[in-house]
Amino acid sequence: MNTLNLVYICSLTMLFCGSWSFVSNRKHLLNTLLSLEFVMLSVFWVMVLYIMSVGIEMYFVLFFLTLGVCEGALGLSLLISIVCSHGNDYFGSFNVV
């Protein structure tokens, strides 16, 4: 088996595990945000591997990484806002009225 194929399989396994964690852990907002960041990291890694194998420039990857950092900062600020207003990040304690 080629080493590059093994790296692709590991990267796609990372993406699947992050997606499974996002779907299965819905009780706490922090767990959800961490699994989203893991998915973003694995998608970033897959994009880097693909762009390196094709041989094009890396500007799109830097743009994607910037958007991932902005998404993480927005998620953390939302988490802090919810914890200050409700006292915890447990989704069961939110009232949707």
From TrEMBL:
Catalytic activity entry: a ubiquinone + NADH + 5 H(+)(in) = a ubiquinol + NAD(+) + 4 H(+)(out)
Alphabetically ordered keywords of this record: Membrane, Mitochondrion, NAD, Translocase, Transmembrane, Transmembrane helix
Any single GO CC term annotated in Swiss-Prot or TrEMBL for this entry: membrane
Transmembrane domains' residue ranges: 6-23, 30-52, 58-84
One Pfam family recorded for the sequence: Oxidored_q2
Entry similarity comment: Belongs to the complex I subunit 4L family.
Protein name: NADH-ubiquinone oxidoreductase chain 4L
Gene name as annotated: ND4L
